Amino acid sequence: QVQLVESGGGLVQAGDSLRLSCAASGRAFSNYAMGWFRQAPGKEREFAATITWNSNTRYADSVKGRFTISRDNAKNTVYLQMNNLKPEDTAVYYCAADAYGLGATMGDAYDYWGQGTQVTVSS
Q1: CB 68 within 8 A of CB 19
Q2: How far, in Å, CA of 8 to CA of 40, rounded?
Q3: Positions in the chain whose pLDDT score sits under 70
Q4: DSSP SS3 for 117
């Protein structure tokens, strides 16, 4: 069992930066792929970024070049550095863990989810 707790969300202006953190419980963190997903009001949840057990990364086209996912296995934590934020980045951001470690872009591949953290970007 893995428990995930996100933090770092908030209200910022367009062009600002935020860094989200996701702290994971459990001893097998280094074996998991970790993903960030987001859900805007009235929209379906969408993939943002993922990092495999060996730190390969993938990004949605909408965030590529602006967001960076990273992990610190010693701290059981995954990060999402978000730069040049836009109003369309406004959403609840969720951290997820994939026990197979492959870094899928589909939410159904993930086994554990956090409660989410709100990011609001004003224009």
Answers
A1: no
A2: 17
A3: none
A4: strand
